[in-house]
Specification:
Number of helices of chain A: 11
Shape of chain B: globular
Oligomer: heterodimer
CATH class of one domain in chain A: Alpha Beta
Largest interface: A-B, 34 and 32 residues
Helix content of chain A: 25-40%
Strand order of the largest sheet of chain A: 6-7-8-3-9-10
Shape of chain A: globular
Radius of gyration of chain A: 19 Å
CATH superfamily of one domain in chain A: P-loop containing nucleotide triphosphate hydrolases
Number of domains of chain B: 1
CATH topology of one domain in chain A: Rossmann fold
Order of helices and strands of chain A: HEHEEHEEHEHHHEHEHEEHH
Distance between the termini of chain A: 29 Å
Chain lengths: 281, 278
């Protein structure tokens, strides 16, 4: 949905003291004492965040740092245990329907009906967002062309497409609904360098052409550096730092000519690759 | 404003039907296998009735034909009801398995549009499949439908749609609440309905508590009413009590099931269950 003029002056995202914990061992143990339960995990710990409209903001963190939980809360798929969050001034819990009209999401796994074709999947998505009428096919074709996808893939089952192609269709699907806020959860993970570059160019063009806001979760430091206006470093559910990539490097990298990776290591005390085995909730 | 909202929701409603049509088309080979399975199940019941005479249970040619028709109507209706029930109840499981559950649940549409869209697609598909099986039965068995009142049967069948939707939506809550065990529980619910609703026998043969449960099941009135119409020519006026009971049950069950689904969705969001599995 196109952004209203009044919403241009409203922060795209306002998060205030959000916390989220998974697992309820006390309750499960009381009801079923024979069951072994995992200890609860604090996925987000009093997170505060402000995202300006029309910017690309990167959420930088390792696996298990809470990035995806944050995205899922903003997508109205999870409710926080404490704190509040709003998208263009609409509360994500009490005004979820309004929030949904403004957002779309691209997740790390391209999620489709695998037997259906890209066109059938996109038509379904368009219908859910008030579209799907005349001209939809032409828009879809133009979008896929821009993403470098051959048009003959449009009517093949999704399962016959490569992972990179599926991810491009996922991105095209999200653009089809013209979201004011695009939530991207590691959209380039697993893509070859060429596809990655094409997707990154496209993300830039969304902001330029549509004045859309992008919240980009990534653990690709280079991607964050070249793509994001601001970067938020998150670890163990807490925001450690935020600023422009240049500010983070200047303040936290510590050395002349340091990189965002140096800043990240200083802030978290580890490399992104160190805890790859940790899983997101 | 209201017009725009309605148009938006109707568009999404069409989207669910369109999606299901595409899925059925893409999975046509598996759908053909399921249709064959349903046909075989119904035929086995029909031949069971045909064989009653050879095991000494026949008291007359007329009563044998009545018994066969009774069982076949039950089997055909159960095939339809269980198929619709299955499609609605497993829609959530299917989306979880495909990984699209998050996209559907974050779409800017009302949940009732989502649920009714799925239900409508299941009903249309269920009727088409049951009609094909019904045609096969007419060819294979000498069915005496000379007394049938099709209008009364149709009225009961149409009225049964509402409570059937309610039951389906209620059952679809189970996979929403439990990604691991919800699917099996939906099978269990289907089994209980088969037992108590008089699919193959009148519910009067059931012991007290089961009989009472049968009285509360909308499928009982559907099966009984359709049988009475097809076997004994129940008039349209005579079908009205069953139609009324079914409509009342539907008016209670549909909003109640949508409300419960909403509560289950809130819980699923709190516990983080709205995500793909596998």
């Amino acid at each position: 949905m196109a952004i209203r003029v009044s919403e241009l002056n409203t922060p795209a995202v306002e998060i205030d003291d959000i916390s989220k914990r998974f697992g309820q061992p006390g309750r499960v143990r009381r009801l079923m004492p024979w069951r072994t339960v995992k200890p609860p995990k604090l996925a987000l710990d009093q997170v505060c965040l402000h995202v300006d409209t029309g910017r690309i903001t990167g959420i930088l963190g390792a696996n298990g740092s809470g990035k995806s939980t944050l995205i899922r809360i903003l997508a109205t798929l999870l409710t926080p245990d404490a704190g509040t969050a709003s998208v263009f001034g609409y509360d994500i819990v009490t005004q979820a329907a309004e929030v949904r009209r403004h957002i779309n999401r691209v997740s790390v796994e391209a999620s489709f009906f695998k037997e259906m074709s890209p066109w059938e999947n996109m038509l379904y998505a368009a219908r859910l967002y008030g579209g799907g009428g005349e001209g939809t096919r032409a828009r879809v074709e133009a979008m896929l062309k821009r993403l470098g996808l051959p048009l003959d893939t449009l009517d093949k089952p999704m399962k016959q497409l490569s992972r990179g192609q599926q991810q491009k269709v996922a991105i095209a699907r999200s653009f089809l609904t013209s979201p004011s806020l695009l939530l991207m959860d590691e959209p380039t993970t697993g893509l070859d360098p060429r596809s990655k570059r094409e997707v990154q160019d496209l993300v830039r063009s969304i902001r330029r052409d549509r004045a859309a806001t992008v919240l980009l979760c990534t653990h690709d430091l280079q991607e964050a550096e070249v793509l994001c206006d601001r970067v938020v470093v998150i670890d163990h559910g807490r925001v450690l730092a935020e600023g422009t990539p240049a500010e983070l490097i200047r303040i936290h990298a510590g050395l002349d000519g340091g990189s965002l990776e140096d800043a990240f290591m200083r802030l978290t005390g580890k490399r992104l690759e160190e805890d790859e085995e940790e899983k997101e909730e | 404003m209201i017009g725009n909202t309605l148009r938006w929701e109707l568009n999404a409603f069409t989207g669910f039907i369109e999606r299901q049509k595409n899925l059925y088309r893409r999975y046509w080979a598996w759908e053909a296998v399921w249709l064959l399975y349903n046909l075989v199940s119904v035929l086995s019941i029909g031949y069971l009735a045909s064989g009653l005479s050879t095991i000494g249970l026949e008291s007359g040619q007329a009563s044998l034909q009545q018994a066969q028709l009774y069982l076949l109507v039950g089997a055909l209706l159960w095939t339809y009801l269980s198929m619709v029930f299955f499609e609605i109840a497993f829609a959530i499981t299917w989306e979880r398995w495909e990984g699209t559950i998050e996209y559907t649940f974050m779409a800017p549409i009302r949940r009732i549009t989502h649920l009714l869209g799925m239900c409508a697609a299941s009903l249309i598909y269920g009727i088409a499949r049951a009609a094909l099986i019904g045609l096969a039965l007419v060819f294979l068995f000498k069915l005496d439908l000379s007394h049938a009142n099709y209008w009364a049967a149709l009225a009961i069948f149409a009225a049964a749609t509402l409570p059937l939707l309610g039951l389906g939506i209620f059952t679809s809550i189970l996979p929403l609440l439990s990604p691991e065990k919800g699917e099996q529980m939906a099978f269990a619910v289907q089994g209980v309905l088969l037992l108590i609703s008089g699919v193959y026998y009148p519910i009067t043969v059931l012991p007290g508590p089961l009989h009472l449960a049968g009285i509360l099941s909308p499928l009982t009135y559907t099966l009984d009413g359709v049988r009475q119409s097809l076997l004994h020519g129940l008039s349209l006026t005579g079908a009205l009590p069953d139609v009324a009971i079914l409509l009342v049950m539907g008016v209670i069950l549909v909003p109640a099931s949508v409300w419960c689904f909403g509560r289950a969705e809130v819980r699923a969001k709190r516990l983080g269950l709205l995500k793909r599995s596998g």
